[in-house]
Request: fold
Amino acid sequence: MAMNSQVNINTVDSKAELLLELQQIRLLAMDVDGVLTDGSLNIGAEGELFKAFNAKDGMGISLAMRNGLEIALITGRRSEIIHRRAEELGITLLYEDVKDKALQLKQIAAERGISLDEIAYMGDDLNDLPAMVQAGISFAPADAAKDVLKAVNAVASCNGGRGAVREIIELILEAQGKWENIVKAYMSHGQGDKQ
Reply:
């Protein structure tokens, strides 16, 4: 099986070891600002005006959920815009105003009846590090904070809000032997995805 060559393996683990670890992932948890968006906060007098999301990331999330990989959003902010995006993509595991992302990750594992080793976490800044340490595997977009880039298992070649989430989802689905069948399904007919 070919591994997505764009992802930079950042640990002492070999690519083969990482592939084995990815095979057991059942849930991908991620931060929002700086991961699903480019991290820009567009705030007007009445509050948050907008966030820019990437359609490729949205498609990746649709593919993930349709193929047995749960998605959870964990953010320290509260935003109606995040609610709209989560609803549009069918994400039901949305946690806002989170001060302790590691504790939230443990609670998600307990609620879902899975181990932390079955959870991957993707974040971009220092407040994500505690969750990254708890998760079985950790990822970051290419433009994450330098200390995060050093701490994670693998780094996407794309920046946050620019396809990094899609890249990591493809990596997980490839490792689980699902990607080839996903592509074949699209060759024969569409899947009705929301992006």
In short: Residues 78 and 96 are 5 Å apart (CA to CA). The first helix runs from residue 15 to 23. Confidence is low (pLDDT under 50) at residues 1-5. The beta strands are 8-9, 27-30, 42-44, 47-50, 70-74, 93-95, 119-122, 137-140, 154-155.
